[in-house]
Amino acid sequence: MPAHEYYPECRHRPKIFCLARRTHIISRDSTAIEARESIAKKDKAEVVPAKPKGKPGRKKKGEVRPAPEPSPLERQRGQTLEQMLFELDTACATGTKKNAQGYKISWKGYKLHLDTACCGVPISAVLTGANVHDSRVALPLTRISAQRVDVCYELMDAAYCSTVIREDIQAAGRVPLIDHNPRKGEKKEFAPHEAQRYKIRSGAERCNARLKDESGSSCSGAWTRQGDVPLDAGSGGTVRRSTHEVAAVTRKRNASAKTSFKTSSQLVARVVHGQKRGN
């Protein structure tokens, strides 16, 4: 069945279904990756000095004030994919977020940002420091996924609630379904058909859980030897390990203090890339 008949919103992009290329819905989410690393210290030369604050109050008659600088998201719209990824912090850092119960939790390490198809297969992945906000990676993931699959809907939680993200996705001919963040205002609910489709976003949560539970992407023993692994990952298989194997590897790694290891961030990239250990 043509896409413009099954999904009326995609009438302007009539294409024939192709399972290898088309996925109708992408769910976007991030997950915490704890790491046994020291937090990277910023070089003093890289620290940007604080900008002087403007005069408070209204402008005087004839006064000309400089235009406000664009936000990081507005700046991303005019950048290439390489420029977007270059500006993202990839060093170990401290992250804080609210969990499902509404409590703030903090961790030291990284964030894995994933685009997941409705069937639970990872499409794109970007690894950043834990201090990078989810919305900063939305546009890079959109560009990467658009190169690999044809998408009609992009589902995101309230962390991605931004007019810039919505406009960019709509300009590309796709439909953004982003949970509204009221920001101390009135929350806007989804239409009934949008709310039903938004339920598919739970696939991203399950994908994150499987990477942590079955592929050793948590901090409890999932360490791998040093080596260069691309941070931008594509779709692929997983490297499965049992609980006993992870525990044995942990004891062996902790017993040898002279062996140098990298954190689980590299293993996560290998998992999504479908690479096996030792390659």
State the CATH architecture of the domain at 3-38 and 74-208.
2-Layer Sandwich
Query: How many E-type strands?
Result: 8
Largest sheet: 6 strands, mixed
Give me the secondary-structure category.
alpha/beta
- The percent range for helix content is 25-40%
Look up the CATH topology of the domain at 3-38 and 74-208. Nucleotidyltransferase, domain 5
The top-level CATH class of the domain at 3-38 and 74-208 is Alpha Beta
The total of helices stands at: 9
Mean pLDDT: 75
Distance from first to last alpha carbon: 42 Å
Strand content: 15-25%
* H/E topology pattern: HEHHEEEHEHEHHEHEH
How large, in whole angstroms, is the Cα Rg? 21 Å
The stretches of 5 or more residues where confidence is low (pLDDT under 50) are: 1-19, 220-240, 257-265, 275-279
Shape: globular
Topology:
Elements: H1 3-6, E1 25-34, H2 72-76, H3 81-87, E2 93-98, E3 104-117, E4 122-129, H4 138-148, E5 153-156, H5 163-171, E6 175-178, H6 192-198, H7 202-214, E7 224-225, H8 243-255, E8 261-262, H9 264-273
Parallel strand pairs: 1-5, 5-6
Antiparallel strand pairs: 1-3, 2-3, 3-4, 7-8
Region (Disordered): 37-76, 230-261
Organism: Candidatus Propionivibrio dominans
InterPro entries: Transposase_11 (IPR002559)
Can you describe what's shown?
This protein is of the alpha/beta class. It has a domain at 3-38 and 74-208: Nucleotidyltransferase, domain 5, CATH 3.30.420. 28% of the residues lie in helices and 18% in strands. The protein has helices spanning 3-6, 72-76, 81-87, 138-148, 163-171, 192-198, 202-214, 243-255, 264-273, and strands at 25-34, 93-98, 104-117, 122-129, 153-156, 175-178, 224-225, 261-262. It is globular, with a radius of gyration of 21 Å. The model is unreliable at 1-19, 220-240, 257-265 and 275-279 (pLDDT under 50). Residues 37-46 have a biased composition (Basic and acidic residues). Residues 96-213 form the Transposase IS4-like domain. One of its GO terms (molecular function) is DNA binding.
